[in-house]
Design a protein that fits this description.
The complex is a heterodimer. Chain A has helices at about 10-30, 40-55, 75-90, 105-120, 130, 140-155, 170-180, 190-200, 205-215, 220-245, 250-255, and strands spanning about 60-65, 95-100, 130-135, 155-160, 180-185, 200-205. Chain A is an alpha/beta fold. Chain A folds into 2 domains: about 10-35 and about 230-255, no CATH class; about 40-215, Rossmann fold (3-Layer(aba) Sandwich), CATH 3.40.50. Chain A has a 6-stranded parallel β-sheet, sandwiched between helices. In chain A, helix 1 (about 10-30) runs antiparallel to helix 10 and helix 2 (about 40-55) packs across helix 3 (about 75-90). Chain B is mainly alpha-helical. Helix content of chain B is about 80%, strand content about 0%. Chain B has 7 helices and no strands. The two termini of chain B are about 20 Å apart.
């Protein structure tokens, strides 16, 4: 009797292999003394530029967490960006506003922003009722609230970090109308075209997750990206082998992956 | 609160439950599968309880303090308090006063905002399709072919439009999806192993 469910054996083995590769690169990164260098992600660099612009204009830096909750990975990734931008805004003495659509995120986001300002030069700037704006968990109610918030606050720069659906274009246009620099981070393929047309910088697909490691500045996390790349090379090799075998009429690889 | 209570114990619980869920997905061991299902039910309960934060957060930020946009706060608070009061008076969500209020306010505003997407897309198209370099020329060319392929003008652009969607578009789509899948896996692993902690307000610490 197998301990692994039928039909999931090959996926389990691939999962175990991927886990081993990434964990091994994490270990190597921890042992490594030299810093790990990655190519810079324009959108991540632009977060600091956006905060600088907001300070110069005397306007707030706004973050849209959207309706992403804590039950999905995208919601947690958004908190990483929130944490990074709040820390930078606090250091620069920049005003800060966060739009939130998931109620469970409110105390977490408040704690992150409070901690960032408490460790900055002006802890008195933190004002929970103004900076942490809970809007609505309903898609278009949130969108309406966000458009209103952007119209009133006129932020110098906006970071769009939550995952969204059809309202992506409206969210992007709201910032365009008030002349904000907009940085969007999106993993959803359906959001990317909308953000490309309405935002100045877009952190696309895989960069959405890699950017979260980059903003941490932690070399162990950066080492994880190396493991991710090794796994990507293996996956691409598997795709090439599979395509060649299918072209030759061999279906063995497909059969193995169905086990 | 000590660092152990605030950081290490929550991270330990998170790692244990995360790996437990993965084991529940792959393994056939009944105790693992059953308890993983129970944990999923807990997450639904926690999300429901967390909804309670919503009204408190709204009250805190919208109680009038003489700043810009106060009138909107008053409308919002009237809705927040008025709808439950209406429900308590009528005793039903399908009663005429409650249903009429919902349809005339929430549903109407929802539909109105959704309809604005069309105007936003036109504004976005105007910016995206302005030819400034070779890349934008390619984008505009592809968009024109796709638009002509979808209108009834004899189907001349139909095959080219279908090819654009099925071949270059799908190739790009799958490339992004592959990267997203790997990124998602690696990020999840970083959280489960306690390496990724920026979401715990610890920027730059390891």
């Amino acid at each position: 009797m197998s301990f692994v469910k039928t039909g999931k054996i090959s996926v389990f083995l691939l999962f175990a292999l991927c886990f081993a590769i990434i964990t091994f690169t994490l270990y190597l990164a921890k042992k490594r003394e030299k810093p790990i260098k990655l190519r810079s992600i324009a959108g991540v660099v632009a977060i600091e530029e956006g905060i600088g612009r907001s300070v110069e204009l005397g306007k707030p830096f706004a973050v849209d967490l959207h309706t992403s909750g804590l039950t999905g990975v995208d919601g947690v990734v958004a908190l990483s960006y929130l944490s990074y931008s709040a820390k930078k805004a606090a250091l620069a003495g920049c005003d800060y506003v966060v739009g939130i659509g998931a109620p469970e995120v409110v105390p977490v986001a408040e704690d992150i922003v409070r901690t960032a300002y408490a460790s900055g030069p002006k802890p008195e700037m933190f004002n929970a009722s103004r900076m942490i704006q809970y809007i609505s968990p309903v898609q278009f109610a949130y969108t309406g609230g966000w458009i209103g918030l952007v119209g009133r606050e006129k932020p110098g720069a906006i970071l769009i970090a939550g995952s969204m659906g059809a309202e992506a274009m409206l969210i992007g246009e709201a910032g365009q109308m008030v002349g904000s620099i907009q940085i969007a981070s999106a993993s959803s393929i359906t959001n990317i075209p909308f953000f490309i047309t309405s935002c100045d910088y877009v952190i696309i697909g895989e960069e959405h997750y890699v950017g979260a490691a980059v903003v941490s500045g932690d070399r162990v996390q950066l080492g994880c990206i190396l493991g991710q790349d090794y796994w990507k090379i293996l996956t691409l090799a598997l795709i090439v082998v599979g395509a060649l075998m299918a072209t030759l009429g061999l279906k063995d690889l497909g059969d193995i992956l169905k086990i | 609160m000590s660092v152990t209570m605030k950081k290490y114990i929550p991270l330990g619980i998170l790692s244990f439950l995360g790996f437990h869920m993965i084991a529940g997905y792959f393994l056939t061991v009944p105790i693992v599968v059953d308890t993983a299902r129970e944990v999923q039910n807990f997450s639904a309960i926690i999300s429901t309880v967390a909804l309670g934060f919503g009204p408190f957060a709204i009250l805190r930020q919208h109680i009038p303090r003489g700043r810009k946009g106060n009138i909107f706060s008053i409308v919002l608070l009237a809705g927040l308090i008025g709808m439950p009061v209406l429900y308590l008076i009528t005793g039903s969500t399908v009663s005429l006063p409650y249903d009429w209020t919902y349809r005339s306010t929430v549903a109407a505003l929802d539909t109105a905002i959704y309809s604005l997407v069309a105007y936003s897309i036109i504004a976005g198209c105007f910016r995206a399709f302005r030819v400034r370099n070779i890349d934008s020329l390619l984008v505009m060319g592809a968009a024109v072919v796709l638009l002509l392929g979808k209108v009834p003008i004899g189907g001349a652009f139909g095959p080219l439009s279908d090819w654009l969607m099925a071949t270059p578009n799908t190739a790009g789509y799958r490339g992004v999806q592959l990267g997203v899948g790997l990124g998602l896996f690696a990020y999840s692993l970083r959280i489960l192993l306690g390496v990724e902690r920026t979401w715990l307000a610890e920027v730059g610490e390891s």
